[in-house]
Amino acid sequence: MIRAQHSLQSYNTFGIDARARWFSEIETPDALQALLKQHPDRPLFVLGGGSNLLLTRDLDQWVLHNRISGKSIVREEANNVVVRIGGGENWHETVLWSLQQGYGGLENLSLIPGTAGAAPIQNIGAYGVELSEVFERLEAIDLQTGERLEFTAEEAAFGYRDSLFKRALKGKIFITHIHLKLTRQKHACNTSYGALKNTLEEWGIHAPAPADISRAVIHIRQSKLPDPAELGNSGSFFKNPVIDKVQFESLRQQYPQVPGYPMSDAQVKVPAGWLIEQAGWKGKRVGSVGTYPKQALVLVNYGGAKGEAVWALARQIMADVKQQFSIDLQPEVNVL
Length: 336
Ligand SMILES: Cc1cc2nc3c(=O)[nH]c(=O)nc-3n(C[C@H](O)[C@H](O)[C@H](O)COP(=O)(O)OP(=O)(O)OC[C@H]3O[C@@H](n4cnc5c(N)ncnc54)[C@H](O)[C@@H]3O)c2cc1C
Hints:
By secondary structure, the protein is an alpha+beta fold. The chain folds into three domains: 3-66, Uridine Diphospho-n-acetylenolpyruvylglucosamine Reductase, domain 2 (2-Layer Sandwich), CATH 3.30.43.10; 71-224, Uridine Diphospho-n-acetylenolpyruvylglucosamine Reductase, domain 3; 232-335, Uridine Diphospho-n-acetylenolpyruvylglucosamine Reductase, domain 1, CATH 3.90.78.10. Helices cover 25% and strands 29% of the residues. It is built from eight helices and 20 strands. Residues 13, 45-53, 66, 87, 112-115, 117-119, 121-122, 124-126, 173-175, 225, 228, 233-235, 334 line the site of flavin-adenine dinucleotide.
């Protein structure tokens, strides 16, 4: 079914009231192929959970909302299992399902909002783990030709919050299923992230199972990130900038407490939240928008904000950080 002038307010976690010129729920790859055949040449936009989007205008496009469901086992090996997940499945529920089956690999990615189909696009990551570490391949449909496509992990060209699907293939494909290689035993638990390690220690857990890590991640996230159901937001609004070591050293001379995480011999990642806080924006509110008091990297809609207001705030923050530190912040969120 195609709906016209459909409100997207409940389809984006910022809670911005924008409209889609046309809107359809896609429940199977066959249904999508049939729709594309019947209505060629319409401008298209694929929507998952709307948790990485800022809508600054109505969309003069046909919004295809991914509702493809299903979780199945493709292959079992001695220590591993490969699962196939429908792109419209909720990501966090997928993580919980995998833990219930006794599988490891997704625990650090607990409580990230959105759909499984969108997870490869920015190579979701949290608490020391990225999707690329468990990703095997994905199935997609070419939005222009309707053809079925597959991409391996190598072809996906994953990077930090980045992939082929965020670049050359942006807006060109509809991801219908993802295949993930998880552990059945000999789980490779990653507790390298400071806050995670500390929480597990406080709980007296010294040899954590994947489910323990998931519980700790959920606990940390709930204590520092706003729940979109209560306060509109899109998680981290900006990527953490990666700067060259020379620039980092000169920054450190001026700000000895600047945090930095080496990415290579020549590059250092600086937390965008720290830069925004130093620029005086932490917890500031401008009308109905602002930065979250506990985490400056998260921009929030206090209610009734327009997307333009959020974007104006973001641009002001970017300008101030640039002026103070000569560092360009890049939005992690897709701004439309
Ligand atoms: C509170 C909060 C916390 C967050 N924490 C994290 C975090 O820790 N780590 C992290 O990496 N991200 C985080 N995010 C960002 C977000 O959850 C992820 O980027 C998520 O993968 C987006 O999924 P989605 O289904 O909501 O995508 P959407 O917002 O619907 O879409 C995002 C982009 O992907 C495209 N797209 C969506 N689905 C498909 C598909 N099936 N095929 C092709 N294109 C598609 C859209 O066109 C759009 O360009 C957070 C967001 C929030 C609100």
